[in-house]
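User: quick one, fold this
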Amino acid sequence: MTSRRRFLLTTGAATSVLFTNASANTENAGQLVHHVFFWLKNPDSKEDLNKLIEGINSLKKIKTLRLCKVGTPAGTEQRDVVDRSYQVSLLTIFDDVKGHDAYQVDPVHTEFVKNYSHLWSKVIVFDSMDI
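Assistant:
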């Protein structure tokens, strides 16, 4: 299949999903998306990677979370806009800012930071509101 045809098919499918989900998104307006990226001090250490993932998974117990996804860089096509320099990402969704704020002070979260922060050299957070 040519690149152009594949692009058109992919774009068409993505557009139909977006329009299909447009009405569903209005019922989730106001949700807060909290996306965290972690860089390990020892990026080649599988042990540190597994330990951090274990710690991040402990956050799933926090009651205000509506969605919690843990991942590592995907093997997608390398493009100028793709950053694969991080080792682990955490994607969470909350009903609102209050849910996010409760998460930040939840004992499970504070214990996570206390027990696992020695593993990372850098953390970047992107927070956004669903519209």
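User: anything notable?
Assistant: The longest helix spans residues 3-27.
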